[in-house]
Amino acid sequence: MAIPKVCGIETEYGILVRGPVGENTRNPVSASSLLINAYLAANLRKVGWDFEDEHPGSDARGFSVDDLLEPEIETHLVNAVLTNGARYYVDHAHPEISTPECRTAREALVFDRAAEEIVWASMQAANALLPAGAEVLCHKNNSDGKGNSYGCHENYLVAREVPFGRIVHQITPHFVTRQIVIGAGKVGCELSGVSSSDVPFQISQRADFFEEEVGLETTLKRPIINTRDEPHCDSSKYRRLHVIVGDANMSETATLVKLGATSILLAMIEDDVVGDDLSLANPVAAIRNISHDPSLQRLVTLRNGRRATALEIQWGLLELALKYERSHGLEPVGHDVGREVLSLWEGILTGLESNPESVAHQVDWVAKRRMVEAYAARHDARPGDARLKALDLQYHDLRRDKCLARRVGLDVLTTAAEVHDAMTNPPLTTRAYFRGRCLAKWPTEIVAANWDSMVFDIGREPLRRVPMMEPLRGTAESVARLIDESDTPAELLARLGS
Amino acid sequence: MAERTQKQKPTPSRTDEVVEAAPAVVGGSEKLKAELDDLLDEIDDVLETNAEDFVKSYVQKGGQ
User: Fold this and answer.
1) Are A348 and A181 contacting, i.e. CB atoms less than 8 angstroms apart?
2) Is the ipTM of this complex over 0.85?
3) I need a labelling partner for A309 at 20 to 30 A (CA). Which of A326, A350, A482, A495 fits?
């Protein structure tokens, strides 16, 4: 039985400081700290992250790799929890925001957009602290064009009882081919030995950086399936599938379909209706070959010997999903959201097949490619021309007056009001509600927080840790009244019975 | 948000759109071309003035 597909998205933003500042300020770690601290100082008191629960070295395949990896999170860096339930921190020399846990892809889209707005607000706050003429730039992209990549990860709740091997085999064809729907596009190629005249434009920001099918790494030899087994909830019941193979999207449609289609397919895998017909013979080669061919004609080989295009594989997956909708319904992903996602997904595949330009208002790589090619034609710019790479970078620029994604006519699925609300208020439908509301109401009495617990200071020893091991407990429906009616955390905890 | 909303379209049923596309495509592509010309004019204004320096200076540390 498929379980509710609680999901979230975490984005590492590109960061650059320009103007009259010293080396220290230019350093990306300092710049990221400045950015986040400026936002926190302007907006709220900082509550620290609690690392009690972090086990990034745990491996879903069941063997211990403690000797292989240091914990990836550097505890001395800025790390804060926001009142919307998100985490805002410095990770690997980038500012990163993890959205709160959301009940649907649609909610997660709103919180991903809110994260962009938080970074934008942070840029304003940081610039006010920098000398005149200096500014901090943030980009929602995944590569600098010079071989350095940073991630946009998705997280999905899946049932522990589903064999991990089944998830690996059955979701991989989607992870390899979904880029034709949700790829963010890239000018040039970052594989050594491949020139910009060989690959002037490719579909995905990230495809060049995947070297393994399955593995625990996220920064080197990146795997298509990441095996990090750190559920941040009851590990006897759940996994958190940590997906590192996606691009950061500027198109809201792309973010919605990315999260929604993957959620539906994971529910289908839980219900064991997917099968292995679409398994690929060589996923790593396929992910690159597909990315390097915006004409969408290239064939990849399936494990059963058949050859198919990415589009054919996406149609195959969509057809299975439509069949699943008829046989099982879409309750695990939310019925209305699931229906919207299937309809968008189908429309995009139809458009890609007949006339890709027709989906330039939905698909990032199509919008970017159209812009880059038109610019190259007007200015007679050849592959390798810096202006084309500048267009690529500026597509993702979060400065409103410079951002090109804002100018290409992408559909907007959210409202300004809901995005603004999501900058400070948590989703109502997951435990993030409890986290966010408590932080907003009792910022000084919360000593630390993380995904699955909060530590309260109730004015007398000892500190009290409240475990939150169920992602769907602590919702507005169950705790809003308790929080509203409690004057102090001590009263709240007494009423929670903990 | 406001800047983005200007070109917002309602979410139509894609299947319908494709079915009725045949005559509309010609007019649609004229419109698309005009939009693209406007976009290129705008890009000439907002693209980094020294694209080469900007691209060269855009160096990130690898992340996850």
Assistant:
1) yes
2) yes
3) A326
